[in-house]
Amino acid sequence: MKLYTFDAAPNPARLGMFMQYKGITLDTVQIDLGTQEQLSDAYRALVPEATVPALILDDGTVLCAVIAIVHYLEEQFPDKPLLGRTPDERARVLNWNHRLFSDIFSAAADAFRNGHPSYVDRALPGPDNVAQLPELVERGRTRLAQGFAMLNEALESSPFLAGEQFSFADVDLLAAIDFAKWAARVTPDESLEHLHRWRAEAKAALTG
Ligand SMILES: N[C@@H](CCC(=O)N[C@@H](CS)C(=O)NCC(=O)O)C(=O)O
């Protein structure tokens, strides 16, 4: 299998942290989003979605959703599980991953891509051009602040997002907070004490 990615981008960062924690190394090619290499004919012939990361399996299957890639890799590399050890835990991890993707990552992406001059007509990733909607910048920033408050509440009664164990839900939230900071200039308010407590512990769990 072969991984196409661009380490500096947020969805590749989610996958990168998962692989780092589990000690997975793969045959990897960097696709430079800075020069729009993802839109080149050569890359689109391999990955019609024109996004990174993409994992191409030995039978030619192309996986271009991070959640699918990590599920595949978790099966291949079962040590240090990050997707839950029981059916309940697996469901909670997946529930959070979906919620973080639709509520937090998409809000940060909206705030970034609908205002940045380099993303005129590239307001959404993918092969087709999509016009910017400037109203989505402030809406994205508001959604991030609301999302962080919701997460703070959820973490009041739980050490990690999906329960007692560090999981891919926590990896996703670490990546989402980094993304929100540089892309939307939104950081969790200092008053969100449970979120800050969780963040220090999640960073320690990731590297420990
Ligand atoms: N569909 C992917 C998300 C992939 C994605 O949006 N990747 C971004 C980088 S973070 C990308 O490839 N952008 C290309 C572009 O902006 O044209 C998933 O579900 O994990």
How does this structure look, described?
The protein is mainly α. It folds into two domains: 2-76, Glutaredoxin; 87-207, Glutathione S-transferase Yfyf (Class Pi), Chain A, domain 2 (Up-down Bundle). Helices cover 52% and strands 6% of the residues. The protein contains seven helices and four strands. It has helices at 10-22, 41-46, 66-76, 87-113, 135-154, 168-184, 193-207, and strands at 2-5, 28-30, 54-56, 62-63. A four-stranded mixed beta sheet has the order 2-1-3-4. Helix 5 (135-154) packs across helix 7 (193-207). The longest helix has 27 residues, at 87-113. The mean pLDDT is 98. Bound molecules: glutathione (GSH). The site of glutathione has 12 residues, from helix 1.
Runs with pLDDT <50, length 5+?
Answer: none
- Roughly how many Å apart are the termini? 28 Å
Q: Tell me the name of the CATH class of the largest domain.
A: Mainly Alpha
Count of structural domains: 2
Question: Features of this protein?
Answer:
Glutaredoxin; mainly alpha; binds glutathione; 4 strands; Glutathione S-transferase Yfyf (Class Pi), Chain A, domain 2; 4-stranded mixed sheet; 7 helices; 208 residues
Topology (elements, then pairings):
Layout: E1 2-5, H1 10-22, E2 28-30, H2 41-46, E3 54-56, E4 62-63, H3 66-76, H4 87-113, H5 135-154, H6 168-184, H7 193-207
Parallel strand pairs: 1-2
Antiparallel strand pairs: 1-3, 3-4
Helix pairs in contact: 1-6, 4-5, 4-6, 5-7
Bound molecules: glutathione (GSH).
Glutathione binds near residues 9, 38 and 65.
